[in-house]
Every structure is written in structure tokens, then in C-alpha cells.
Amino acid sequence: DIVMTQSPDSLAVSLGERATINCKSSQSVLYNSNNKNYLAWFQQKPGQPPKLLIYLTSNRESGVPDRFSGSGSGTDFTLTISSLQAEDVAVYYCQQYLGTPGYTFGPGTKVDIK
Amino acid sequence: EVQLVESGGGLVQPGGSLRLSCAASGFTFSSHWIHWVRQVPGKGLVWVSQISSDGSTTTYADSVKGRFTISRDNAKNTLYLQMSSLRAEDTAVYYCARDRSDGTGAFDIWGQGTMVTVSS
Question: Considering only CB atoms, which chain B residues are within 8 Å of A42?
Fold first, then answer.
């Protein structure tokens, strides 16, 4: 199975500052048939289900603020929050959904306000 | 409103069985693959199983293979997870999640989850 790792485990950022979360997969999540990387990012707040933020590496889900962006390819990916807001305090997970088999999540990165 | 609502969780003894349900509304249920994902409180997300839109294809994580069965009733807009030979390590919140099934593969809609506790 593809193993996902994230760094850092947690970070504290001042309001209005940039937060960057890294995600690495043990093998490429590139689907050769369409040249797309099957990597998603989710936000989870306490007591709530995960919320899809980004899919196919860099596509922002409808309704997600544009301060959230995703980038990367192959095995290395990044979620950036360009200007951290109080409501962004949460745990963020990356997920590979190339499958073959399974759809594995990273261990999560907790984002707090400094 | 597009939503998924899980039910059926509860306390069960080790070795016991439980059936979870996930009721869908607000979208064409029969057009979407659906997944089960679980989460031990305070821990990370773990994919459990998936089922194709017509129910003909199912896949399981190794940790539940042979013990869990995913199924669906498209006439009732409902997904199921039959869990048997339950172990303490199956204790978790179980979420159903919709696969957008448009080629993007995104898990775009999640239910609120149902808690399963396996304990004597």
C-alpha cells in the first residue's frame, strides 16, 4: 500500500501569516492515463467530519476560500494557507486516492494560532 | 441538501456483530461510489471499504477483509457495513463518504459519523 507522511506534526502560525504543510507518498500517485496526481487535502475540526479542501493536488473545492492552495506532483505535495485565519485552526490530512489498493491518509498536521 | 447520515453504531462485545447504515439524500445515490472511513477518537483517518455505484465491485482494507461486508440498496438510497468478528481495535467513529465519481475521485461529502465501541 502507498504510505503517506506529513510534516510537521503540528505548527503554530500568527494570524495573517502563511502556513505550509508537506505531504509525501511512498510511491507516485500519478495516474498515467490522465497525467493527474490523485492527492487530496482535508480539514477536520473537533467533533466534525473531514471537509474536502483540495482535490487532484491543486483544485480547490467549491466554497473553499482562495487562501487555501495545493501544489506538487509525483510523491511530494504541499498545502498552503496564505493568510491564516482563526477559523483555520484544525487538523489537516492529505490523502492519496490513486487506490491500487486502498486510499491512504497521512497522519495529520495540527494547525494552531501562535 | 446533499447529505449522508450514518446510524447503527453502539457498544458490542468482542466477537460480536453490528450493521451500520448510511442514508443518502439530495443526490442521485445510484450514480456514486461510496466509501467507509473510520477514525479512532483523537487519531487519524483510515479507509475501510468502497463499493461501486451498482454494487458489483467492492474493496476492503486488509485489516477488515473477511470480517466486514459493504453493500448498498439503491432503491432505498442506503449503504451498509456489516461488521462481524469485531475486535477492540475496530473501535472508532465510522464515516461514510461519497466519491464524486466524475473522474476526480474526490471524497466530497461525508456523514457526521457513528461511534462503534467494541468492549466487554
Answer: 45, 107
Q: How far apart are CA A55 and CA B104, in angstroms?
A: 7
φ, ψ of residue A87 to 5 degrees: the values are -75, -5
**Residue indicated by cell numbers 445515490:** B29
Q: Are strands A59-60 and B18-25 parallel, antiparallel or unpaired?
A: unpaired
Q: Which of A40, A42, A105 sits opposite B46 (nearest CB)?
A: A105
φ, ψ for residue B88, nearest 5 deg: -55, -35
Q: Is B108 in contact with A55 (Cβ distance < 8 A)?
A: yes
Q: What is the pLDDT of residue A100?
A: 64
CA of A104 vs chain B CAs: smallest distance (Å): 6
**Which chain A residues are within 8 Å of B105, Cβ to Cβ?**
38, 55-56, 97
Distance CA A78, CA A74 (A): 12
From first to last of its 120 residues, chain B has per-residue pLDDT tens of: 999 999 999 999 999 999 999 999 999 999 999 999 999 999 999 999 999 999 999 999 999 999 999 999 999 999 999 999 999 999 999 999 999 888 888 999 999 999 999 999
B50 vs A contacts (CB less than 8 Å): 103
Tens of pLDDT along B63-72?
Answer: 999 999 999 9
Among A49, A56, A93, the residue with its CB nearest the CB of B110 is A49
B34 is written with which cell numbers?
461510496
